[in-house]
Amino acid sequence: MALTAKELLKRYKELNRERHLWEEQWQEIADHLVPRKNQIITKRTRGDKVQKDRFASTPQHAHEILTANMQGTLTSRAFRWFDLRLASNNPLNRDPEVREWLQNSGRSIWKAINESNFHSQVHEFYLDLTAFGTSCLIQEEKPGPELFNGLVFKTYPIQSYVFEEGVDGSANAVAIEMMMTIDQLIERYGHTKIPQGLHDRAGKDPTKMFPVVWWVLPRRIREDKKQDSSNMPFASVHISVEGEQILEEAGFEEFPAHIARWTKNAGERYGRGPGNTALPDIKVLNKATELDLLAWAKHIDPPWFMTDDGVVGEVDINPGKGTVLRDRDALWFFEFRGRADIGKLKLDELRQSIRQTFFADQLELPQSDRMTAEEIRTRVELMQRVLGPTLGRLETEFLNPLIERTFAILARKGVILDPPESLINSPNLIDIQYSGPLARAERLAEVASIERLYATLANIEQVRPGVMNIIRHAEAAHFIGQSLDVPETLLKSIEEFATEEQARDQANAQAQETQLGVQQSEIVRNLAAAQATGAGGV
């Protein structure tokens, strides 16, 4: 590695200064949406109450709904949410061997992801993304004696990392700050790698935490022909901040950090999410709810007044209790004249606005199997309008790199077999086709349109025979099969179907010719017999 520990730490501190500009806003968002993550600026000890001065639960609830919908829509655990395909016009799509290899490879990728801790960590990933607008998920191989021991994922807190962008605007380098005790440092890096100063300080307090900066960045100087960790495309460097000493240097074949932004302004590094947009309404709702609760309390338990000499003993206003007064008019209650109904209307307006910001209503797909084609189409169009730009960015910055890195790891470990020779010798790129609820709903809407077309033309066929031939029936059947997630191995290619249909038509034509010949022979025989009978009669 060409860069020294001092240079990398300087680079980290410069990026850290930029991140500090965002931390105050992140702290406010965390306080209202994810209180358990509110240690961005505020430092608290374990067990501290995190829901201080919060009177409204709607923001957290709406945020959790959006997070759950994102996870269920994009990366559900219940079903395979992507497929590997070639371009739709690629003739190799008709090769049964290629289709089977693509399907098996996609299944292996999904299995490796699904059997890891991905789903627990991606939930945290979506929480950060929808709250702060930026999220970071690290993907590594699980160490172990086997050739492939599985994948391991970890989402890092927003305040723990900084990153750099490449020329395309996507993240290509990340630095993560980790706090470790001396025992953890020794376990991770070995006793000899730890600066002596840390040993001396830890001797006085074994629980003391020391900062370590982990850099992952493109390796500019390397020998391509060497396959060792020191010559991989991406360098991995662990640095002790105290002592400015490199603890470990390794590498990655692919960039292991998946850093996504919900939306991003030009010239800014960090993203902005629904949490940023909803923050003003959230703060107003919290304060308005506090005032509404105060007004409610005044109605239920109003303050009371009494003259100084009108009571014998202390006043007890609890239910069933009595107090002796000299004067019946010596005690009276405050008459509250506030308009609680006005406050309720404003609260309802704020709650609805927050729910809309987090798409709590728009993103919930009906679970009914009896949705009409128009209902499906309307819902799909709405979801596409709502999440279209975000989904495009998420595919580029998160989903595609996740699947591509998993594919590369499994291919190196022999889990994914070598592709067919026809695919090796072809410069075709593999496309990722997503098949989550949104994508499936879109395809089902198209299937419903095809079914409507068949029903309409069937009626017209009764008046105008032959009109059904306007449809390419084989292509339509193939599309419907794919849209219903029928395994590719169970579907004949269009060419295979056409060949069989041609052979079937030829066989039918030959049978008809044979039948016609038989009929003609029978007619000739009958004519000959008739002629013979007529001649005998004469």
Briefly, what is this?
The chain has helices at residues 5-33, 58-74, 96-114, 118-132, 182-189, 196-204, 274-300, 340-357, 373-412, 421-424, 437-461, 473-483, 494-537; strands at 82-85, 134-141, 151-155, 161-165, 171-180, 210-218, 234-240, 245-252, 257-261, 304-306, 331-333, 431-434. α2 crosses α4 and α3 (96-114) packs across α9 (373-412). With 538 residues, the chain is of the alpha+beta class.
Oligomer: single chain
- Output the structural class: alpha+beta
Strand order, main sheet: write it out.
4-5-6-7-8
- The shape is flat
Overall mean pLDDT stands at 84
Biggest β-sheet strands, sense, barrel: 5 strands, antiparallel
Our measurement of the CA-to-CA distance between the termini, rounded to an integer number of angstroms, reads 118 Å
- Element order, helices and strands? HHEHHEEEEHHEEEEHEEHHHEHHH
Strand content: 5-15%
Number of helices: 13
Share of helix among residues?
40-55%
**Radius of gyration from the CA trace?**
35 Å
Low-confidence stretches: none
Features:
single chain, 538 residues, alpha+beta, 5-stranded antiparallel sheet, 3-stranded antiparallel sheet, 13 helices, 13% strand
